[in-house]
Amino acid sequence: MDLTLTHVGGPTTLLEVAGWRILTDPTFDAPGRTYRFGWGTSSRKTAGPAVLATEIGPVDAVLLTHDHHADNLDDAGRALLPGAGVVATTASGAVRLSRSGLVRAVRGLRPWQSTELHAPGRPRVTVTATPARHGFLGSRPIVGDVIGFSLTWEGQQHGAVWISGDTVLYGGLREVATRVDVGTAVLHLGRVGFPVTGPLAYTMGGRDAVELCGLLDPVTVVPVHYEGWSHFRQGKGRILADLADAPPGIADRFRWPTPGVPLRLPV
Question: Which pLDDT does position 43 carry in this prediction?
Answer without folding.
Answer: 96
